[in-house]
Design a protein that fits this description.
homodimer, 253 residues, alpha/beta, Rossmann fold, two-stranded antiparallel sheet, 30% helix, globular, disordered N terminus
Chain lengths: 253, 253
């Protein structure tokens, strides 16, 4: 199931329609069973480390979790947090979070979400175990999503090689300088390229997650999620992503 | 320091300018010492109970906490969470949070923030200890802010008597029916009436907090906070609040 690569940003819903027609995306009312989700749920794992930023964690977490309450036939997304050792972490803003899993105990992950953390641009990149775990889990995931500086960690793990991506606007130059081989996109809320979704972050972190809900479960579900979170959907033209179609996984979500 | 009551919504920045000229608002680079803040900080206490909604907690938490990094002379807002017994709580979306304080140990609170929780419209209103604590702390606070259904708890505690307010759009009718003596405003992101700030909630919870940062620390600081969180500031006209000027506290923030 291969599609020609489009390099021109286009309307996300137009693309969605194309993918639907091409049979590349299914929009079930509920995630279908596969080998990974315990109850056939889409397994959405959020990396949390000390210094993780609240908004970049919570925005996609809430959008994906709320999807469960707007699907016709019940739960479809299992959201959970994973920290390196499973112990309590303190967010950048000072909240104390107890993760659900450690690297060792985390279940299979279909969507790996990497929010920014205070160390995402420096010390976290030198943490071999962290980078290795992100690489291993990211390579096996259907989608990998970064928010803000989370893109640095994806890049360090090689997960953005061959994909277009973006990051926090004030760090475009630093990102492009650190990873000069990457195709970095500027001035878009987020970039979708095949199995990679990279967002500018901040309060815009909601948009990329809304888009993923739309992609996975259809526009009607995304509109319902938006009505609960007071996020207008579909987005205004200026908030539309740079979307690059690539061969996609055929896993049935 | 009393101002005539305005009942007509107006441009928030125009009002801010008026208040500045009238000497009702100071915009220090840093919160000045007073009797409550341990180090002269503005003490921003967030109520967290089981079933609290992530976004309604995190959005104002992040905006207020980030203000510290954009004030010319260092920290100015101390953000902290308070739960009834100080034990770990689980949010509506399933995150496990360790609160900073219990009702018994919480420090003085200058800004009391009440996010929505799963029980905000029903069982939480029948929890006498909870309502009493909100009333007691709210009556002594300079500002009380609710997000989404948090307005129900404020109303139950009598903190909205004599003030205009709003809540989650799908619950306008229920709110007005439950508290028929209140002046409920519809179709605005939030309402500011003297020491009360009530927001529709959801992703719009950022806006009321941005507005408070602007009110407390000035537009320049709010713009800086917005640049970090990717929130355009000042807001678009459609996002402007219904603002009602009332006699305000003269405490020097």
């Amino acid at each position: 199931m291969t599609m020609a690569t489009l390099r021109t940003p286009c309307h996300p819903l137009a693309l969605l329609a194309c993918l639907l027609v091409a049979g590349c995306v299914s929009t079930p009312g509920r995630a279908k069973p596969d080998e990974s989700g315990a109850a056939g749920n889409l397994m959405a794992g959020f990396l949390v480390v000390d210094g993780v930023y609240n908004t970049e964690l919570m925005a996609p977490y809430d959008v994906l979790e709320h999807a469960n309450h707007h699907l016709p036939t019940g739960r479809g997304v299992e959201v959970f947090t994973v920290s390196p050792d499973g112990n309590e972490i303190v967010t950048a803003e000072g909240l104390r979070l107890v993760p659900d899993y450690s690297f060792a105990t985390a279940p299979p992950i279909d969507v790996l979400i990497v929010p920014s953390a205070r160390g995402s641009r420096e010390e976290d990149l030198r943490d071999g175990d962290l980078v290795d775990w992100v690489r291993a889990r990211g390579e096996r995931a259907q989608y990998v999503m970064s928010l803000c500086w989370g893109a640095f960690l994806l890049a360090e793990a090689g997960l953005l090689d061959g994909y277009a991506s973006t990051t926090f606007p004030a760090d475009y130059a630093r990102f492009a300088r650190t990873y000069p081989h990457l195709d970095v996109r500027f001035n878009v809320s987020f970039v979708h390229d095949g199995g990679r979704l990279t967002s500018q972050g901040g309060a815009r972190s909601y948009e990329v997650a809304m888009y993923l809900v739309d992609l996975l479960f259809g526009e009607e579900t995304a509109i319902s999620v938006g009505s609960g979170l007071l996020i207008p959907w579909p987005p205004e033209p200026k908030d539309r992503p740079a979307i690059l179609s690539r061969p996609r996984s055929t896993r049935p979500y």
